Amino acid sequence: MTASRFELVQIGDASLYRGDCREVLAAVRSVDVVVTDPPYEVTPGSVRHYTNNSMQNGWMADSYPVNSSRMFEVPAFEDWMGVVFESCAADADAYFMSNDKVMSDMREAAQAAGWKFHNLLVWQKPVGIPNRWYFKDCEFALYMWRGKAKTIRQPSSPQTFRCGHVRDRRHVSQKPVELIAHYVTNSSDPGDLVLDPFMGVGTTGVACARFGRRFVGIEIDADYFRIACERIEAAYDQGDLFVAESQTKTQSELFE
């Protein structure tokens, strides 16, 4: 991999690029697993959902978009899904975080790029977003593969993974480390290469540092990129102890 056109920060086994993933990925190959929370439109229709008493002091009260606004730029799934596919090894897994609104479009773009559909996974949250048609307390991951399907490391894992929101989040859609680590560790071995083409503030990189995976992360936003570098460097500072413990403890025990 080269970094002549992009800012590159190397931290341990993590290669962190600031740039557009559609350009950076031309230099990335042999990825074993993709774990990413890509940008997609979130357009709730009523400000009342987020300004009533139950949400006013909640985890998203100040920053959630309403009335067709966007949290960030949203490239079409077709614009990046193919280059992500091409960056992977012949046999690879992928986890694409999604919501119920865009799930079918994302899956269609993934399959058009060459990915095959394994399963629909669920992140169940402790608190739902209120509306008149059932509280929304779940997000989803499209679990895909290319080449030869590989058995996950913990085949008894259920489709649903339950954990709380990030309490001190640095990104409006930041995912819990334990959720991302669950996907990373189930579809890779220590030393494997993990890609997050929409790195955000580096949660996938943190999981990789803690569990001994190599990592390529790409983020176009300068502020989020800086935070990602800080978080991943901090994870490496304590990473040796964490990886050593992971050899004798289950993942759920490590995050308790």
Features:
256 residues, 9-stranded mixed β-sheet
Supply the helix-strand structural class. Answer: alpha/beta
Give the neighbour order of strands across the main sheet: 1-2-9-8-3-4-6-5-7
Shape assignment:
globular
- How much is the radius of gyration in Å? 18 Å
**Low-pLDDT segments:** 45-71, 241-256
Order of helices and strands: EEHEHHEHEEEHEHEHHH
The average pLDDT is 84
Distance between the termini: 37 Å
Please outline the major beta sheet. 9 strands, mixed
Q: Number of helical runs?
A: 9
**What amount of the residues lies in strands?**
25-35%
Record field, number of beta strands = 9
Helix content, binned percent: 25-40%
General description of the model:
The protein has helices spanning 21-24, 48-51, 77-86, 103-113, 177-186, 203-211, 222-237, 239-246, 251-254, and strands spanning 7-11, 14-18, 31-36, 88-98, 116-129, 136-146, 160-162, 193-196, 214-219. By secondary structure, the protein is of the alpha/beta class. It has a 9-stranded mixed beta sheet with strand order 1-2-9-8-3-4-6-5-7, with helices on both faces. Helix 3 crosses helix 4 and helix 6 (203-211) packs parallel to helix 7. The radius of gyration is 18 Å and the shape is globular.
